[in-house]
Amino acid sequence: xxxxxxxxxxxxxxxxxxxCMGMTGIYKTGADAAECEATLIEAVxxxxxxxxxxxxxxxxxxxxxLGRVLGGARRDKVVLATKFGFDLTQTxxxxxxxxxxxxxxxxxxxxxxxxxxxxxxxxLYQHRVDPKVPxxxxxxxxxxxxxxxxxxxxxxxxxxxxxxxxxxxxxPISALQSEYSLFERGVERAVLPACRELGIGLVPYxxxxxxxxxxxxxxxxxxxxxxxxxxxxxxxxxNFDANLRxxxxxxxxxxxxxxxxxxxxxxxxxxxxxxxxxxxxxxxRTRLRENLAATGVQLASCDQFLLDQVFxxxxxxxARYLPAGMATLDRDP
Length: 333
What we know:
Helix content is 37%, strand content 17%. It is of the alpha/beta class.
């Protein structure tokens, strides 16, 4: 598989990575444990190198899964990325509270190392920017682990262009993780230009719009209780109907390209630049194979232009999250 560089500090990974969140309970449609482990193993064998987790996924059980499956002989073949930044002892209206105090970071990183069964985290992210803690203090604490050899590269998640610049001035940031897809193009305004100015790679999560761009025509209310997609604004009521019309355009492009809608969505994202490494999520080997085949899809320039226009910012109906979730995002003034 093609490799790409994240940042200017030497982090090189395969062009597509695997987001592992869905393997431990975030979705309530069921994830078979044995199939999840088999999917992880096949991903390594297929050349995937970047595997994304976080302490909050589970919580804790996702890191434990990756530690169990990707440790030992597989460890040196993979790039393990994990995240800190939540207070798992308290909940707010948006879920878990934020906590990026230096003492909390130090405790969480040590715990993540134990769960991942490793002596180093390859890419450590702050999961969400904590407005109560200056980003300089956060990155300074993260950098302590780099100097100690316990972390190799640093990243932020959902940080604004302003925050990126402040963070990068303290220690080089190699990657920014943010939602980016045909369904969500907000980073194109200020964040992606800032990444390129500073030499920071972009790792898009939800590149398939939580399955919608892969042709999954499931309304929010059809998901079981406890599945967070049940409350996703873009899958609800009239928003779903409006977005379905956009999906039909994507399906038309896929038919011409002799590919699936999900493959076309990933191919469109890969074509946005060599500094972009999407991480898709799946719990099944069949979907893994389908998504990895996106690297071989070449879109005609006319279809690339059509998708740019159909999914232009403002055309997708509904917000990314409910208001409480939107409040956790760090955005430029």
